[in-house]
Every structure is written in structure tokens, then in C-alpha cells.
Amino acid sequence: MAKSMVSTSSGLAPLPTSRNSLSSLKSGQLAFPSHRICSKRLNSTGRCEPPVRKIVCACTAPPRNWNDGSAIQFNDTPVSEVEHLSREPEDDSDVLIECRNVHKSFGEKQILKGISFKIRHGEAVGIIGPSGTGKSTVLKIMAGLLAPDEGEVRIRGRKRHGLISDEEISGLRIGLVFQSAALFDSLTVRENVGFPLYEHSNMPEDQIAELVTENLAAVGLKGVEDRLPSELSGGMKKRVALARSIILDNSKEAVEPEVLLYDEPTAGLDPIASTVVEDLIRSVHLKGKDALGKPGNITSYVVVTHQHSTIRRAVDRLIFLYEGQIVWQGMTHEFATSSNPIVRQFASGSLDGPIKY
Ligand SMILES: Nc1ncnc2c1ncn2[C@@H]1O[C@H](COP(=O)(O)OP(=O)(O)OP(=O)(O)O)[C@@H](O)[C@H]1O
Ligand SMILES: [Mg+2]
């Protein structure tokens, strides 16, 4: 699998160019397919500078509840108690993305009611919670596709103003794998998966085609390169979208950390396909290893999921969202044993409990 990073320069949905058959894409068919969103640190000459990396291993950092609510539980112990007992001076030099008191409404409907959390260098974080609670909205806000109504998003310590843009001085690339596959309907699987490289690299087409085949194989797909999305099952489309999110320009050296946000990557997949995807998500992480034993390039990732297998296999820390607030945070292994009634109900799927449908 390709292991170095593609350096993209556009912001949202990259438009196809005339470089190749992508030019056949009709306008109006760009239903927001971009998955890799780039922002760069620019120097005074407009050149891209390597980011200053000050890395503190994040995975061993204890999870904290950054919400202000004193009633909110962390590891089933009140936050104030945890902080009183164990709080150390915070080192935020490894924080890549921070949401601070983020609010978001759609019309009259308040979806996010002041959520705060940090994604640190090296972390594998899951966001869980009932349907319609705002998980996808959080990912879009982190990716810079939606702006919060109140509160702020900080990228490597710098406040983002509005939506993501090429000018953003952040030194962090953020990719989003949409809940719906968001493939280009009129492009083949090969063109869809190779899209970031056709658009943003100088790689020859046969090399891109080779990488496409490798990345499709990594998500368990073979011989589908020439098919159109309409000729694939829902689960296959999902895996094609995933292959597109991890394809990287292996002719370049990685210069910036990258965070991938996966929105329900295993929803609709059979158990074995889910395992393939969960292992793939781990293997592209810098703390993971590919088939050759090399570490992956994704610095940190966030996975929104409802699936227990994905929670168990693909993430280390969990954030539980309910009714627009973070109601619980903890390590994955603490999820199953938590006595928090919301967590217990969610974990067991019971109809009895505080979550009402
Ligand atoms: N662009 C939008 N315009 C209006 N309402 C929206 C928009 N996006 C999301 N919503 C509403 O915001 C709420 C949260 O949506 P969101 O997609 O974030 O939920 P979710 O937690 O991801 O749910 P699921 O688990 O079903 O995917 C829903 O009530 C949804 O209808
Ligand atoms: Mg969603």
C-alpha cells in the first residue's frame, strides 16, 4: 500500500480537470465528493513549510472530560473529583484539533449545545451516540465544512475562522470519509479511487492505476476497477470511498500530519468486511502497521460508529454524544463496564433507560 502522503492544494470538492477522463464528469454531479481537505502552513513567499512538530505521545494521556458540567461523569467518577485527584499541568502541544464550547443549530433545532474536546497526536478516537444526536455534524465542523454558531475550532492551537480554506495556517490536513459514500456517479471505480492523485499529483496514470488496485485490495475488493458506482452494492461503495480516502502519493515525503475522520465506515458491511475495514483503519494509523510491518501515515483519526466491533477493534478512546452534549468519555475498555446509565443502555441496546426513542 502507498505509504507517503499526497499533497493536495485545494480546499473543498476539487473540480475535475481536463487531464484525463475525469473531464467527462458533467457539472452538477459533484455531490460533495471531496474527502481530503488540505490546509497548509505558508511562509512569506507562499511556499508550503513543513509544520513544526512537537510531539507528545497522546495515547497514554488520560482521557479527560472537557465539558464544564459538574454533573457529567468520566469513568463513572465525577469530573471534578478526577481533576482534583490527578490533574497535572496540561501540555497541549500535541493537540491537533480542539473543539471549544461548540454550538450548532439547524433552524430552530439546537443540535450541539456546547461541546468541547481535543484530538491529540497519535490518538484513535471514537464518537458514539444515538442516531440524530449530531455525530456527523461534529465531524463536518472539525473538517471545516460547517462553521459552528458559537464556540471555536482550533487547529494545532490556531483558531479557524469560518470554513476551511487553502489559506488556513494550520499545518494539518484533515480528510473526511462521508457517511454516504459520495462517489462520482459518472466515474469508474478506478477514477473515483485515483481521483486525489489524478488531480493533485504528477504520477503517471499507470502508476495511479496500480495504486488504485492495491488500495482496493486493502479494502477487500478485486476486479471492480472498471465498474461504475451504480454497479456496486452499498457496502462495496463504502469500501471504494474508504480506498479513496487512504490512497496516497508514494512519490512524495510526508510533511504534515494528517487526521482522518471516518463517518460510520463499517455501517452496512457484513462482519468480515467490517473486520477488514477496522484492521485497515488501524493499519494506516502511524501507530499501526501495514502488511510489510511499516507504520501508517495517518497521525490521528476519529471514527463515528454504532458498531461494537468497530468500537472494540478500531479505537482507543470514546466520546459519547447525547442530546447535543458529551455525556461520557473514557477508554474503549471502560465502555463495557461503565455504570453510567446512558452508556449501559446504549451498550446493551435496551429500550429501558434514559435514552428515549
Ligand atoms: N444540513 C442540515 N440541515 C438541517 N438539519 C440538519 C442538517 N444536517 C443535520 N441536520 C439535523 O441535525 C441532526 C443531527 O444530524 P447528524 O447527521 O449530525 O446526526 P448523527 O448523529 O450523525 O445521526 P446518525 O447516527 O443517524 O448518522 C438531525 O436531526 C439532522 O436532521
Ligand atoms: Mg451520522
TrEMBL record:
<dbReference type="InterPro" id="IPR003439">
    <property type="entry name" value="ABC_transporter-like_ATP-bd"/>
</dbReference>
<feature type="domain" description="ABC transporter">
    <location>
        <begin position="97"/>
        <end position="348"/>
    </location>
</feature>
<dbReference type="GO" id="GO:0016887">
    <property type="term" value="F:ATP hydrolysis activity"/>
</dbReference>
<keyword id="KW-0813">Transport</keyword>
<keyword id="KW-0067">ATP-binding</keyword>
<protein>
    <recommendedName>
        <fullName>ABC transporter domain-containing protein</fullName>
    </recommendedName>
</protein>
<dbReference type="InterPro" id="IPR017871">
    <property type="entry name" value="ABC_transporter-like_CS"/>
</dbReference>
<dbReference type="InterPro" id="IPR003593">
    <property type="entry name" value="AAA+_ATPase"/>
</dbReference>
<dbReference type="InterPro" id="IPR027417">
    <property type="entry name" value="P-loop_NTPase"/>
</dbReference>
<feature type="region of interest" description="Disordered">
    <location>
        <begin position="1"/>
        <end position="20"/>
    </location>
</feature>
<keyword id="KW-0547">Nucleotide-binding</keyword>
<dbReference type="Pfam" id="PF00005">
    <property type="entry name" value="ABC_tran"/>
</dbReference>
<dbReference type="GO" id="GO:0005524">
    <property type="term" value="F:ATP binding"/>
</dbReference>
